[in-house]
Amino acid sequence: MLVLLPALLILFFVVFDLDPFVNIKQLRACQEWLDTYYEKNPLQLILLFSLVHLSLVAFAMPTSFILNMLAGAVFGFSVASFVMPLVTTVGASLCFLISRCLLRNIMQEHFKDRIAAIDEGLRKDGAQYLLTLRLIPLFPFVFVNLAMGVTTLSLKKFFFVSFLGLLPKSLIYINAGSQLSQVKSIQNVLSPWLLLSFAIIGLLPLLYKALLPYFRSRRARPPKKFRQSYR
C-alpha cells in the first residue's frame, strides 16, 4: 500500500487544487513530501508520477501545467525534461484515440462549429496548423487533443507534431518548477512576454507557408539583367 501513496497524493493534489487555484505554498508542501520519497525510491516515484500524469492527460484532465512544474521541482530539470514531454505527448495521443474511437459523435454534436474551424485550418495548413495550436492557446490543450481525434489527421502526425509543439512549454514549466523557491506566484510563470513569445513561434510555420509561393516565384523568375539582354 505504501507504494501507492505518492500516486494517490499527486492525484488528490491535482483534483482538488487545479490551476488557477493552486498556489506556490501548496506546490512547495507537495514537493517536500515527494522529495522525501524520491530520496528513498527515485525510479519508483518517477514511474508512478509518469503513470498518473499520463492517465490524467489521457482522460482529459487539465493538469499538465502544474504537474510539469511539480516534476521539475522534485526530479530536477534534467530528469524531468527527459520524462515529462514524452509522457505528456503519449497521454495526449491516448486522449486523441479515446476521442476518435469513443467520443466522435459527442464531440461533433456539442462542438460542431469549433471542430469545423479546426478542420478548415488542417485543410489549409496541414499539420502546421496543429503546431500553431500547440504554441498559441487558441483552444485549450485538452480540447485540441479531443478535437483532433475527430479529424482525419493521422495518429503518427499528431504524436510527432504535438511533441514538437509541447516541448518548449513543457521545458519552461519544468525549469520554473526546478526553481520553485524563487517563484513567487503561478502568474510569474505565465507572463505576458512568455505568451507573446509562444504566439510568435506559433505563427512562424504559417508565415513561412504564406510567403513560400512568393519566394518560389522569385526563384523561378530570371534576373533583371538577364531579361534585358534578350530584348
Secondary structure layout plus pairing:
Layout: H1 5-16, H2 24-40, H3 42-58, H4 64-75, H5 77-102, H6 104-110, H7 112-125, H8 127-135, H9 141-148, H10 155-178, H11 186-189, H12 192-220, H13 224-228
Helix pairs in contact: 1-3, 2-3, 2-4, 3-4, 3-5, 4-5, 4-10, 5-9, 5-10, 7-8, 8-10, 8-12
Shape: elongated
Provide the helix percentage. over 70%
Mean pLDDT over the full residue set: 76
Low-confidence stretches: 1-5, 14-21
Structural class: mainly alpha
Biggest sheet details: none
State the assembly state of the protein chains.
single chain
- Counting DSSP E segments of at least 2 residues, the number of strands comes to 0
- The fraction of residues assigned to DSSP E strands is under 5%
Radius of gyration: 21 Å
User: What is the number of helical segments per DSSP (H or I, 4+ residues)?
Assistant: 13
State the separation between the terminal residues, measured CA to CA. Answer: 88 Å
N-to-C series of helices and strands: HHHHHHHHHHHHH
